[in-house]
Amino acid sequence: MIPNKKNFCGGNFQDWLEVSLIEKCNGRCSWCIEKNGYHPKEHAGWQTIAEQALRSNKKNIILLGGEPTLYLDLSKIIQALSSAGRRVWITTNGSLLNRRYILDNLNGIAGINISIHDSNLLQNKNITGIYIKNLFDTVFALHDIKANARFNCNCIKGHVDSIDAIERYIEFAKSVGADKIRFAELKRDDKGFVDLAKILNYKYGLNDNPFIVGCNSDAVINGMPVNFRQMCGLQTSRRVCPENPVQHTKSVLYYDGKFYNGWQTIKQNDKKLLELLNKVSKRKVNVKEAVNKIRKGFIS
Q1: What's the pLDDT tens digit per position in 66-116?
Q2: Which domains does the chain have, with CATH numbers?
Q3: Do 79 and 50 meet the contact criterion of CB atoms below 8 Å apart?
Q4: Cα–chain center distance at 232
Q5: What is the pTM of this model?
Q6: d(C-alpha 256, C-alpha 20), whole Å
Q7: Is 26 within 8 Å of 69 (Cβ atoms)?
Q8: Cβ partners under 8 Å of residue 11, min gap 6
Q9: Which of 168, 167, 170 minimizes the C-alpha distance to 181?
Q10: Which of 23, 109, 127, 286 is a plausible cystine mate for 39, CB 3.0–4.6 Å?
Q11: Residue 193 DSSP one-character state
Q12: Angle at CA 183, nearest 5°, toward 248 and 88?
């Protein structure tokens, strides 16, 4: 089964390079897929990461994490890439953003994606553990350095889960000067999943089969440019999984300075080992039991 050619896995956005800049994060998003992501033991210097990013010959480079603003040499990488003619983007939880930080560290970026999952910032703190201060001043400072500000909103049950909630979010984003919004469905989180097609009555290209029809669509709602990102059955059990899917993967540059074929996850046995060691540390399993489980290949 072949995906829609406008999808990420269908070959779109090939002029983008995603960079896993750091594994550390000061947030606590329950759905975070990087909790069980691959975390290399080695950390290359910022020069190596910049050189590798340039070697990819991609025009657009997006710096991710973890939380990229925790990376101490962020400004150096941005300068190295932007001075070489690359368009640099960052996705952040916004925890460190303020005018001083932006002017000192983010000069040269083309745009920034700030993850905010509720128009009520106190509710957003309940979701992420992060309270974003001075958001209006932050967006104003980004505009001062000629950078766009997009808000990324994962639609979560009990938060942004209706037409009214989406419209409230749009008005909130407009009030602080945001340039664009992305509303996305949750990946691998059935409990909080919000079906965008259903709550928006299948407008704006939203559909029940994003793998074939398209998972990525744009609209303008109440004067605000909006992007919608749906999840197909490969990313959520709420939709039927495609049979024998053909996917186009993109290279991802990790903080060890190496390219990988797409985003990596830890091997299943590694995950089970971590879970087992965690139980041992909490004295839920004794050492002898743990050794026996390992010898049996974690068969319980």
Answers
A1: 999 999 999 999 999 999 999 999 999 999 999 999 999 999 999 999 999
A2: 8-266 (3.20.20.70), 267-300 (no CATH)
A3: no
A4: 16
A5: 0.88
A6: 9
A7: no
A8: 5, 248
A9: 170
A10: 23
A11: B
A12: 60
